Amino acid sequence: MSLPADVAAVLAGERRWAVVEADCRDVLPWLPIGACVLVTDPPYGIGEAGGKNRTRSKLAPATDYGDDAWDDEPAPQATIDAAIRVCRWAIVFGGNYYALPPSSCWLVWDKVNGESDFADCELAWTNLPGAARRIVWQWNGMLRRGRETRHHPTQKPVGVMQWAVERLPRDAPNVILDPFAGSGTTGVAALRLGRRFIGIEREPRWAALSCERLTAEEQGSTLQARRAGQMPLYPVKP
């Protein structure tokens, strides 16, 4: 496998984003060292893709994301290490599930979960300079901040991912890399901050959703509005 043409176009500044349907282990070796910043949320191995969400809701019917096995085990340590090596700076959500170097700048997402089987917070390992930082953003079923629609069982809020990207040093590369792209939330955050994005996703269902969602975002719309045939809120950006 060689570097996909649309990925090369993003690196050259000729496209704003690309999502590759592939195993990231086949793509990472082709990326130029230091051309991207890693911002990712890999599988933690906690079984969230296996239909656990269906049993959680007490106030309203829970979303059924289906039964999949991709979160049965954490992403391989060697894959996380390879992704970090490719990038000068890295932000890895769920970094506490992996053997990563000591960091002074952990990012903490306080989810305001209350009494549930979810963790009170999630941790992102970084190799960024500076001290640990925390954001409070409720994301618990119907009780969540904003009106954002959840498409994926382990989806992060766009606002949390934007906050993470905003922690990057000023001289960081403009291209954000997410080798576990899921439903494309990191890409949406990148585009909203004026950055370019490369996503890699091996599951066809989620790769297709990422592309659809990022197409809507680039057109100044949302996935829901695009599917409903509504006009974009503003013209397509160059």
Please tag this protein with its features.
two-stranded antiparallel sheet; 238 residues; alpha/beta; 8-stranded mixed beta sheet; 24% helix; 10 strands; Rossmann fold; 7 helices
Strand coverage percent: 15-25%
Q: What is the 3D shape?
A: globular
| Biggest β-sheet description | 8 strands, mixed
Mean pLDDT: 87
**Low-pLDDT residue spans:** none
- Proportion of helical residues: 10-25%
**CATH homologous superfamily assignment:** Vaccinia Virus protein VP39
**Element order: H for helix, E for strand:** HEHEHEEEEEEHEHEHH
Order of strands, main sheet, comes to: 1-10-9-2-3-5-4-6
Oligomer: single chain
CATH architectural grouping: 3-Layer(aba) Sandwich
The tally of helices reads 7
- The helix/strand class is alpha/beta
CATH topology: Rossmann fold
Instruction: Give me the count of strands.
Output: 10
Calculate the terminal CA-CA distance, rounded to whole Å: 30 Å
Main CATH class: Alpha Beta
| Count of domains | 1
What report would you give on this structure?
It contains seven helices and ten strands. The protein is an alpha/beta fold. It has one domain (5-227): Rossmann fold. The strands form two sheets. It has an eight-stranded mixed beta sheet, sandwiched between helices. It has a two-stranded antiparallel sheet with strand order 7-8. The model has no long low-confidence stretch (mean pLDDT 87).
